[in-house]
Amino acid sequence: FSRRHKLYREELNLTSPAAPLPLRPDASWLQFHLGISRDGLYPRGSPAVTRLLRDMRELPTISADYSQDEKALLGACDCSQIVKPSGVHLKLVLRFQDFGKAMFKPMRQKREEETPEDFFYFVDFQRHNAEIAAFHLDRILDFRRVPPTVGRLINVTKEILEVTKNEVLQSVFFVSPASNVCFFAKCPYMCKTEYAVCGNPHLLEGSLSAFLPSLSLAPRLSIPNPWIRSYSFDGKEEWEVNPLYCNTVREIYPYSKSNRLLNIVDMAIFDFLIGNMDRHHYEMFTKFGDDGFLLHLDNARGFGRHSHDEISILAPLSQCCTIKRTTLLRLRLLAEPEYRLSDVMRESLLQDPLAPVLTEPHLLALDRRLQLVLGAVGKCIETFGEATVVANDTAQPRSPAEHRAKGDT
């Protein structure tokens, strides 16, 4: 493979330094980045997102590499802390023309396979179709906090091996006994062919998630989730044993002042609907301050078990008994027969090249879980009253000029 790669590069004259490429102002990646606001990652019905999804689906790759966190593992790999080899979570950064960049997560599990009951959430598979479905659900809920994500059938030979300049990545490609082209992640504890992903013989399904602007352009904070889970086999966090835990959270800034707690509840509802128990941190743009939206990143551990509803994910809602009015109205609308969530999701996912993205039982599980969310809200309203539980996030604060005008009269 390395000889073939060398010949390919020489053929394209890639050994000589390439001329710098101009940045086109109309590039879909740039337009997506410019569309980020304090309301979300993109405006409703954004044409830039439509173009971005199309470009990620169709443009040829010009380079491929490991992600930064996987590179860090190469040099700093504490194998004693790994319950299950991270090789099963192999992901790559693919680059396109116009400085486009996307995270590629390959198919590890067939759609109809459920996560085994005995799996802990922190050893679960990462599913490419969960990333795609999470983007569509997030958009339907009008959160717009998941980066645009699309499915794609990748030719691992032509679109990864032959364009990568990373010799480590080149070295992990091999041909399986079934004559399929395979590759795996490289780290002392996972440099094994049994953790590989394989094409058929070259084509491999995967999800492509658009990168956000670089941290130098748009700094982000990574903050521990107050409802973080214990990442051990027998430990429990305080929220799991103390039903009054939210009272403690409410006393801590910024949960005491801003809408951060309401955003945490939004995130918990989203995670409950997709069945994601692995939200240990959340990220947000520093530019938008404490009231900024939370990014819903890394959703590949969602949609693992359609036959089980993990009620504990809803702890922020059930313990704090608060929810945004806009979120509640959207959820109630999606529970109506003519706007049923499973139907809207099914129709939305048909737009993806890898449709059907979810199996029917997963779609129907969304309707069931939505009823459980509305039931939890109803219980809170019954206990504390609607005025206390439902936060009016649609009222616009009056401007200083309005205050002055009233004072002058």
TrEMBL record:
Q: Which InterPro entries match?
A: FAM20, FAM20_C
GO MF annotation terms: ATP binding; kinase activity; metal ion binding; protein serine/threonine kinase activator activity
Tell me the superkingdom of the source: Eukaryota
Q: Does the keyword Cell cycle apply?
A: no
Question: What sequence ranges are listed for the domain FAM20 C-terminal?
Answer: 173-389
Q: Which residues bind ATP?
A: 105, 209-212, 283, 298
List the keywords (alphabetical). ATP-binding, Disulfide bond, Glycoprotein, Golgi apparatus, Kinase, Manganese, Metal-binding, Nucleotide-binding, Transferase
Where, subcellularly, is it found? Golgi apparatus
Q: What is this protein called?
A: FA20A Pseudokinase
Query: Organism source for this protein?
Result: Pomatostomus ruficeps
